[in-house]
Design goal:
7 helices, mainly alpha, two-stranded antiparallel ribbon, 2 strands, globular, Cyclin A, domain 1, about 50% helix, 2 domains
């Protein structure tokens, strides 16, 4: 993170990053939520740090749409059973891009940032607790849900970077 908790962005890419983030921030404020805005800023910063950065092509609306589309895919935004929810075509229309532009740009982003299906790095913080893969680890050759494991195993998994936090801490603070 850079100054004031904002993501780290190279000076040469600051203007391109800010152009994209202005679009994603405004869209998230009106149609999604702050969690999407935060992840969109982080994703735009990750793209700004790429060498060469794809954001340096004067198409901020396309990159903003691709970022939100990629985040939407990872967080089931297009599934009407989730909240927030928005259809893919609706997202594209509101952003003023074609669905093929948003979809193709999202694919490029997923490839550049090596984003897997249900990638926990790009999951909304409020959805981490129920993430289907995040909590599965291998212990002595067996796959276990670390949330049900003893605290010592949770602490070890956390120290190794396998999980984002110690589940036992969340239970005791609830």
């Amino acid at each position: 993170m850079g100054a004031k908790g904002s993501p780290r962005v190279p000076d040469a890419m600051r203007a391109a990053y800010e152009a994209v983030v202005a679009i994603t921030d405004a869209f998230c404020a009106e149609h999604l939520n702050e969690e999407y805005a935060m992840l969109a800023r982080e994703m735009a910063a990750a793209l700004a740090r790429k060498r060469p950065s794809p954001l340096n092509n004067n198409r901020p609306r396309s990159w903003a749409a691709g970022i939100l589309y990629a985040l939407g895919q990872n967080n089931f935004l297009f599934d009407k059973n989730n909240s927030p929810h928005m259809r893919a075509d609706e997202l594209c229309k509101l952003l003023g891009v074609t669905q093929s532009t948003a979809s193709n740009t999202a694919r490029k982003i997923r490839d550049m940032l090596k984003i897997d299906v249900l990638d926990p790095r790009w999951t909304l913080p409020s959805k981490l607790d129920s993430h289907p893969y995040l909590w599965l680890i291998t212990v002595n050759g067996f796959i276990i849900d670390v949330r049900t494991a003893p605290r010592e195993i949770q602490e070890l998994a956390y120290q190794k970077g396998l999980i984002p936090y110690i589940p036992a801490d969340r239970k005791s603070s609830s």
